[in-house]
Every structure is written in structure tokens, then in C-alpha cells.
Amino acid sequence: MREKTLFVRDKEVGFRLALSLCFLLILGGQIAQGAGSGAATALTFSSEQNLGRIDKNPSTPFLRYSPDGRLHAIWIEDDETSSPQGTASMEPHRMSGDRAPSPMRNAVIASSADGGQTWSAQRRVNTEVEAVQGEENGPKIAFDSNGRAFAVWSIPGEKGDKTRANIRFAMENGRGAFTHARTVNEIKDAARFPIIEFAPDGNLMLAWIDRRIDNPKPRQLYMMRLSPEGKALTSNYSVGQGLCECCKLGVAFADGGRTVYMVDRQVDDNQIRNHVVRRSLDGGRTFAAPVVISKDGWQVPSCPHSGPSIGRDSHGKLHVTWFTLGRSEKEAGIYYSLSSDGGKTFAPRRLVHANTAPEILYTTLAVGDDDTIYLAWSNLDHNKRAQIFLRSLSADGQSWSAIEQVSHAPGNASRPVLAVLKNRLNVAWTETDGETSKAVLRNAVVTK
Amino acid sequence: MKLIWLRLLALGQISLAAALVTAAEQPKHLDPVRQNSAPEIGAAAVPFELKTLNGKPIDLSTFRGKPLVLNFFASWCDPCREEMPLINDLAAKAPAIGYSVLAVAVEDSRSAVTQFAKESKLIFPIALDLNSTVKRSYRIFGPPATFFIDREGIIRDIIIGPLTPERASTALTHAGIGR
Fold it and tell me: What is the pTM of this model?
């Protein structure tokens, strides 16, 4: 009897030891996952800086590093001749033709040689006074290998209608200023949400959402190519359709510019909005049928105005982030996915941050030199104010950093943008409070 | 007895390990979206005070006693622009029939909305929701959206997305307009 009891006890102790071992192995695995080569990064943020002149209501910053390692920011602010809050700013502007009155806003640019700590004097990009558009439709910049800047922005159409807009293009003239802007859309009052990229093949690629064909209603994706001298290499050409009419685009390149990936929000006949990636293997001349990243099933007949973002890592993986409400508000939030086969298929979506309020959220991502993925987005804080949040995903896709709130806006913060170079990460956004706005920047040092 | 305790201990360890693994795989949330407070049909319209384009205070409660068409829009929003002639038409008919029309501009600026109102010859009062507080309380995931509120301040119909004449007509009836 005693022997039997001992045997049972021995067996039970052995069972317990085995379980303990399993437990330790699992726990050890979890710890290793967080501390191994794919460990999440730590970010040490500087204090906030304001971009632009605070009395001119700066907003809608966009950041980009040029090949020489300088950080550049472009944003919009009230025109010098405008009075606050749209009184004198309602004067008709005649400089670019007989357009209807619109609030005059300039695109301005500045650069930093020390990763965003100190900035050059700002320069105006649009030589003529124009109603440069912001928010989802803000200006963008790209740089050639010599660090020359090329810019695009959108202005309202003939009747002042910002939904029937035009895309303007200008480049540095080599004498410290910008060339006179020209309109690149060949059909007037039909284009907005421009992006510009210097493709690895040495030419500029412009893309935008176009409404020259107003029926069927979902918009078209149009592109054109420009030489480094700004000369048109192509006419405007359509490469896709079915786009949500007010949501920004994203682009990434591979194979020296031969492969181009575009990401956009699609809307179908039932007003279901899914996000897609379309791939070109001929340098953006033609695109394959779009691939749905995730069948979110978000059905909305209104205007969600919050487009997706795409990046490509050094191993060719594509990383995408987007906002969706999904099939119910319980699913609402910022999502992330990746493709390991060049955009043919995408991994199941991963929730980055659930909505904390009934609100459209804005999201963006950037890929670090070490393939760490940085995501920034807006969401409500505990005071019910929209703020900017940030987290990173390790290069092996295994470890998420903790969510960090990077803005502390007294009003609302929205539309974050990111730039990353080596161990520097920069995040900028727009803060609004009542009738005022400001463009805010924070810099971070990345440590493993 | 000891055997039971040993088994319970083992079970606890398994549960703890499973919980750790599950926690590691789950996305981290701050606060999940709050599911209450949705302005539903049959609920009281959420009160608010804003300022108009001209800077005058406007209080939702002052519209009580008459049905109200409450439209949320933005000047940058395509479907909002498309439905504005219909909203204007509703506003033109409102005094004779006995209801009001109020629009709330969301995620927009005074100058842009003033420009839009002038360009579109809008004839109804427009309030500016500059800090998005009213938009959030009405759970507007992107404009346009229109709420049809009866004379008692109760929401009787909601249209998310652009209005059509047919749908607007039904919604007006639900709010007690034109009966």
C-alpha cells in the first residue's frame, strides 16, 4: 500500500515537473520572442516643435528625407495677405486665372540637417497665391539623387469646388526658389489627392484620384511620368478604377523602379470599402487587377476620407496599414497586414489599435533601415480628444512595442506622418483647437 | 487529498501558461469602442451648443417645438455637395410647412464653409463643429448624415450618406412633417 502510494506520488510529482517544464518553456519562448533579434525598438522622443509660423495656422505637414540625409517638411499655412479666419482670405485670387474665391493657403518647405532638431528658414513653394489644399489632400514632396525637391499639391477647381480640383507641380529651380507651378491634369477640375515619388529608374511618378469620367461614380486612378527636368514623359493615363473619392493613396517601389505597388481604398456598387494593392511590373505603365488586402466588409455610403499606407522592407515584403469600421463598430480600428509574395496575397489582418470613440482614424506607416515597421495613427485619449499614437513591429513581425501617445493636444491631433532614417524617427501631425491650427513635430532616437 | 491539491496546482499552471500565450497573441487595446450612447431612432437628440458661421451661438434646444432636419456635412465631401440642392430645397419649403433645417459642418474651417455656403447659395443656418464634439456625440463616421427630429426632440429617422428625394420624403413623414 505504501509502495503504491509512493508510486502514485512519484508519478504525480513527475507529472507536475513535466508541466512546470512546459510552463517554463512557454514562458521562456515568450521572453525570447521579445528579447531576441526581432525585439521591439525603444524610442526616446524629443519635446514638441512647431513647424511654421504659429499665427498663420500651419497644418498638414508631410516629411521626407532626401538622399543626402536631410529631413524636409512641407506644410500649408495662411497666405501673408490673408486676415485671420477667412475674411480677407476670401478675396478672389486672380494670379492663376479667374477662379472663385477660396481661402488662400501657401505650401511652405524647410529642411533640417540634424534630423529635425534645427530647421532652415522656410520657403514658399507656390510662387503664385493659391488656395493650396490640406488635410487628406495635402502637399507632397520628393527628391532626386542630387537632393532637388519636386512638389505637388491640389487647388480647388474653377468654381472654388475642392472636390473638382486641380493638381499643381513645381520643382526647385536651382537658385533657391521653386519654378512657377503648372497644372498636370489634362482635364480641368477633375483631380485631387496627388502623390509624387522619385522612382528608382530616375524619373518622377505622379498619381492621383481623378473624376474626369464622372459616371460611374467611383473614381479612377491616374498617373503620369515626368523627367528629372520636369518634362512630361507621358500623358495622363488611367491605371485603375473604383476608388473611394476622398481617400489618400500610397506607393512603393521594387526592382529598381520596374515594380510599382499602389494602395488605395476601393468602393463597390454596394458601398463596401476594402483596401487593395495593385502591382505594376513595367514601371507603372500597366497594373494587374487589384488584390484585396482584407475583406473587411465596411459598408458606408458617406465619406470616410482616411486612406491606407504602404511600405516595402529590404526583403521585399510589403507592409500596409489602414482604418476600417469592419462589419460592426466592434471591429473598428487601425489594422496592419503584410505580403511576403509581392502583393499576390496578404496575411490575415492584425489589429493595431481599436477605436476608442466613434471616429474615422488616420494612419500611416514607415519602414526603418533595419526593417522595423513604425505605425502612427490618431485615436481618442481618455479626455476624448484625438491624439497621435505610435507603435512599432519588429523586423521579424513577432514583437509589437507598447502603444505610445506622442501628442498631447488641447484640442485634437490628426493626420500623422512619419519619416525614418537610420536611428532617427520623426513624426509630425496637425493640431486644431477651435479656429486655430498648428503643425507639430517630434523626433525620436531609436534604440534596440 | 494531497493528490487533488497536486492536480489542482497542475491545472492552475496549465491555465496560467495558456493565459500568457493568449495574452501575447491578442492585440493590445487602450479602451475598446464604447457601444452605448448611439443616437438611435426613438432616442432623444443629443443637446449641443455651437456657433454659426457668423459667430452667433446656436443651441439645439431652441429648435424644440418644431420638427428639425439636422444635417452633418463638410465642404470637402463629394456626396455632401451633391445632396446640398436637396437640403436647400427642404429649407426653402420649411417655413410654410412648419419645420426647421440646421446644418453642422464637421472637420472643416470657417473660411472653407463660408466659401462653400456662398458658392452653393445655402439658405439654412450652419453651425461649426470645430472641435468635433457634436460629430462624436452623433457618431458620425464621415459625412454626410441627416437626422430627422420631431417637435419633442426625439430622433425619428437617420440617413447615413447622401439624401435622395424619396428617402427624404419618408424621413420627413417619420418626423411628423407634412402629415
Answer: 0.86
